[in-house]
Amino acid sequence: MLRFVLRRLLITIPTILVVITLTWGLIRLAPGNFYSGEKPIPKAIENNIREKYGLNKPWYVQYGKMMGHVLLLDFGTSLKYEGQSVNGIIARSLPVSAAIGLSAYLLALLVGITLGSFAALKQNSKLDYASMALAMVGISVPNFVLGPILVLIFSLTLYWLPPARWYGFPSRGMVLPVLTLSGIYMAYIARLTRAGMLEVLRSDYIRTARSKGLSERQVVMRHALRGGLMPVVSFTGPALAFLLTGTVVVERLFTLPGLGNYFIQASLNRDEPLIIGIVSFIAITLLLMNLVVDIAYAYLDPRIRY
Amino acid sequence: MLPIEMTNNGNLLEVTDLRTYFDTEDGIVKAVDGISFQLKRGETLGIVGESGSGKSVTNLSILRLVPTPPGKIVSGEVIFDGQDLLTLNNEAVRHIRGRRIAMIFQDPMTSLNPFMKVSRQLMEMTRLHLGHTKQQAYEHAVKMLETVGIPDARARADNYPHEFSGGMRQRVMIAMALSCEPELLIADEPTTALDVTIQAQILELIKRLKQATGTSVILITHDLGIVAGMTDHLLVMYAGKIFEQAPTKELFATPGNPYTKGLLRSVPDPTAEQGELYQIPGLPPDVAHLPPGCPFAARCDRVQEICHREFPPFVQLTADHCSLCHFAHEVYEESRAETAGRSSESKL
Fold it and tell me: Which candidate in A90, B10, B76, B151 could, as Cys together with B18 as Cys, close a disulfide (CB 3.0–4.6 Å)?
């Protein structure tokens, strides 16, 4: 098991280097740069800026310098937010994204698994149809539509909850972003749970469990849930990575100072160190979460050995 | 115990006119259609038939384990020790499942929970029904695993099902089923998924444990060779109906139904020099669209015009020998003549 984890961690390193190289290349290919604005800059000033940031050096020198930063996990200073280190920006914005993301994740798991399990247990009942219809809506409605609708109802009509901004953790201001964010995950998890549970509930070992005289509750909780939730586990790992590292749309919608918001700003500003920093962070988190899922699988299913 | 037995004529189980139908897209499938039989304490009953003849559904119906929907027990009585299991509430049925009636299923590969240690799966039974503590249940589980012949039982108890071979898994299933000393054990094709040498071991084990505990057994199988040496009575099922029922010896000696005769002829005879193995022509009928006459008519070698037209009567041949056939008496007499012929031959 330990050998498996170490091997997987080693494979992670080249993956991240490839991701960063591609990102770096794409920034280069994109038109414009961090210092150009609406007004043209005099040639002399532009030359000074290029000199100062080393942009006049050959590409491999610049690439080498960037990689040096990445390998030290110190991503340098932002080009747009003067004097602020990239690491500082990530450290400041991550808690906001993580608070929203983790809450959305837990909510999605709780509601999704409950809804999906009941739908499976009462297959073809009204409850089943209602929850699956709801899940279908959840998957189909994009969060940039769901968010404004929620704001319209709960903020602008009922005046229950603030429509935007960050008020710290925990706060009532989190409710709408969390709901908006968890919607689609909730729906996916509900559908995955239902499908997984339906398959397991039909299996022979559930019939055995029933023949032993266990109550329906014991059959479901002790025997069915574990096997039924295996598909959910593989989905929730990457989902958690995306939720933790900020979601662009929801953070913009509710003007939250999270990682996703900075990510978008950095891309628009061609703020190379910040982009590289955030991309590396997301890539590492995602790969780690996948590893966690694989380990969880081995723990949950005794038949899997690495 | 005595007064109860007197009220049921010594029958542990009395199934009367059991009908279990399945609602499918193809129409209503009458998987079990008017089955009646009795089982005395300590006896072994064999149920024989081809795939889809309704033998498994009969037994799932007894414990109300038929998946509903699409299945539904339409009518009938299942009197177990004086109580009708079909009218009991769910709670009461659960106290009978596992505790008084236990089941072993066909495929030991899939019938055990792959995510749970074997010991826990066994402990679940006695903790639930006998109120064992964790410690007691564990000791009992190890003891049961020893009883069914799992070598090094204490060390193997904490293994998962996939760490056992097929035969060993079926032993685990048997250990689990017998851990509360049930009065009735239903074994649904317990050896079908196993290879031949293991089959013999498992059957021997069931036989031995049955003698040791006095449990009644219902043995479901499609293999006549298995039931011959193990059962007291036999039911032959076809298309959801009982085609013939009789004491095992009598059924083998003097079958009163063309279908039974066909089945008996299909058993390979190792003493025969060579030659082709007999097989009943055709396939079992589609139970969703049965013809009006005898369901076996299309495959029967002595079919008459009446067989296609009218459903056959359930003819009583002797006190405990019945056959579903228009010509039951004739077939029975033929069998008797054949047997008499054979025995006089062997005397010569």
Answer: B76
Instruction: Note the ipTM here.
Output: 0.83
Summarised one tens digit per residue, pLDDT across range B9-68 is 678 888 888 888 888 888 888 888 888 988 888 889 999 988 778 888 888 898 888 887
Residue/partner pairs of A31-37 with CB below 8 Å, 24 or more apart: A32/A270, A33/A270, A34/A79, A34/A80, A34/A269, A34/A270, A34/A271, A34/A272, A35/A79
Query: pLDDT by residue (tens digit) across B63-106?
Result: 888 887 788 888 888 888 888 888 888 888 888 898 899 998 88
- Residue B148 has a pLDDT of 82
Say how many CA atoms lie within 13 Å of B166 toward its Cβ. 15
- Separation of alpha carbons B301 and B113, rounded Å: 46
The shortest CB-CB distance from A302 to any of B125, B160, B173 is to B160
Provide the H-helix boundaries in B148-195.
153-156, 166-178
How would you class B238 by CB atoms within 10 Å of its CB: exposed for 0-12, middle for 13-18, buried for 19 or more?
buried
Nearest to A213 among B69, B105, B129 (CB): B129
Kindly list the residues of chain B whose beta carbon comes within 8 Å of any beta carbon in chain A.
63, 65, 67, 69, 94-99, 102-103, 105, 107, 110-116, 124-125, 128-129, 160, 162, 173, 176
d(CA A10, CA B84): 65
Given pLDDT bands bounded at 50, 70 and 90, which one contains residue A115? very high
- DSSP per-residue letters across A49-99: HHHHTTTTS-HHHHHHHHHHHHHTT---B-SSSTT-BHHHHHHHHHHHHHH
The pLDDT-based confidence of B274 (bands split at 50, 70, 90) is: low
Most B-contacting residue of A205, A225, A233 (CB-CB within 10 A), to test interface: A205
CB contact under 8 A, A212 and B115: no
CB of A302 within 8 Å of a chain B CB? The answer is yes
Q: Are strands B184-188 and B101-104 parallel, antiparallel or unpaired?
A: parallel
Give the pTM: 0.78
Determine contact, residues A250/A147, Cβ cutoff 8 Å.
yes
A11 DSSP β-pair partners = none
Sheet-wide strand order for B11-24: B27-40, B11-24, B71-80, B83-84
